[in-house]
Amino acid sequence: MVLYWLTAIAFLMHSTAGLETKMFPFTMPNVRPYRPELYLCTPVKVDYTRNYYIVAFEPNATMNTAHHMLLYGCGEPGSTTKPIWNCGEMTQGDSDEDSGSPCAGGSHSQIIYAWARDAPRLDLPQDVGFKVGKNSPIKYLVLQVHYGHIEHFKDGSTDDSGVFIHYTTQPMTKLAGVLLLGTSGIIPPMKKEYMETACEITEKKTIYPFAYRTHTHNLGKVVSGYRVRTDDEGNDHWTLLGKRNPLTPQMFYPVSNYEPIKTGDRVAARCTMVSERQRATKIGATNEDEMCNFYLMYYVDNEEPLDMKYCFTAGPPYFYWKNPEVHLNHIPDDEASQL
Asked: Which of 18, 149, 226, 271 could form a disulfide bond with 195, CB atoms 3.0-4.6 angstroms apart?
């Protein structure tokens, strides 16, 4: 059974600067994770007879129980018949349980919020919101929680990790979006490796970045994101959007530069990984694997967010900024990648 959002269990919270907001507690339905590295999803159906605007995310979780959480906006959820399902990238051959992606194949899918490492509440800038419902491709929200360890649940305890969603029905013209930059690839043993990605903004839209978030597992040392603009002489100018040690709280931080990103600009991200392992480490879903993610949160003014939601490359040993076919120059040096 799919839970309906924005009905009787929405609570009036407060009015700030004339903005009346309500809160919806979107949490796991007291689940009991039964094995490590389990990804579980639960859906909620948005009332799509009107528009709603999400203005804040208040996490209800601790890193002692949840490795990380993602909030997806979907056209259809990965399951419409089950209140919870296994939604990891790797279901490990579990044929005896319901499994699937967070969003149904072929439907709209985007990440609108991410949390890890005891990150605090996120409030969007004034007059900015994520539009869901009637005039949005987002008809469902899906909460995904990654349970890296299950020691806390061996005594029969259950979990209600999730996020309290603060929203309004007042129309907003500044609509928020998230662009996720990341890579695939392999980190060789006993080596420092750069995992890099870059994509051009081809849509005729201007986006205004305001927050970023980094995410790796254990080998990440620095994650940085840039806007790259090419001048008339063909020189690339790299503007830092954000740089963090990914092992600090993985919250959304204010960007380093609020200048707009326009058509023809490129967005780029680099994860500096250092491995002291005797084995290669691949990109994957578990703590024994790695991830390289840079989330860029932005808004558009009086138009819809980008159709592009993801910017991914094959990563090492196949993709690097320095590859001739990538056509980047004046690349930040090694020291520029350090904190």
From this structure: 271
Catalytic residues, by residue number, are 67-68, 144, 146, 215, 217, 291
Q: Are 59 and 69 in contact (CB under 8 A)?
A: yes
Cα–Cα dist 210/276, whole Å:
35
Torsion-angle region of residue 234: left (phi > 0), alpha (psi -120 to 50) or beta?
left
Bridge partner list, 237: 229
Contact 332, 241 (CB under 8 A): no
- Rounded to 5 degrees, φ, ψ at 333 are -80, -175
> What does the block give as tokens for 143?
């909460």
Question: What is the pLDDT, as a whole number, of residue 97?
Answer: 54
- Region 249-274 average pLDDT: 95
Q: Which two tokens stand for residue 105?
A: 């194949």
pLDDT of residue 90: 41
pLDDT digits (tens, 9 = 90+) for 68-110: 899 999 999 999 888 999 997 544 444 445 678 999 999 999 9
Q: Contact 66/28 with Cβ under 8 angstroms?
A: no
- DSSP class per residue in 134-146: TTSS--EEEEEEE
Is residue 38 within 8 Å of 153, Cβ to Cβ? Answer: no
Dump pLDDT digits (tens) for 297-321. Answer: 999 999 999 999 999 999 999 999 9
Dist CA 94 CA 96 (whole Å): 5
Two structure tokens written together for 162: 């999730």
Report which DSSP code applies to 73.
E
The pLDDT of residue 316 = 98
DSSP classification of residue 125: P
Alpha carbon distance 273, 290 (integer Å) = 9
CB-CB contact of 222 with 332 (8 Å)? no
Task: Give the residue from 142, 111, 143, 316 showing the smallest Cα distance to 215.
Answer: 111
Going by the DSSP 8-state scheme, the letter that residue 1 receives in this structure is: -
Mean of pLDDT over the chain: 90
What are the backbone angles phi and psi of residue 255, rounded to the nearest 5°?
-65, 160
Q: What pLDDT, on a 0 to 100 scale, did the predictor assign at position 67? A: 85
Residue reference for tokens 């309500």: 22
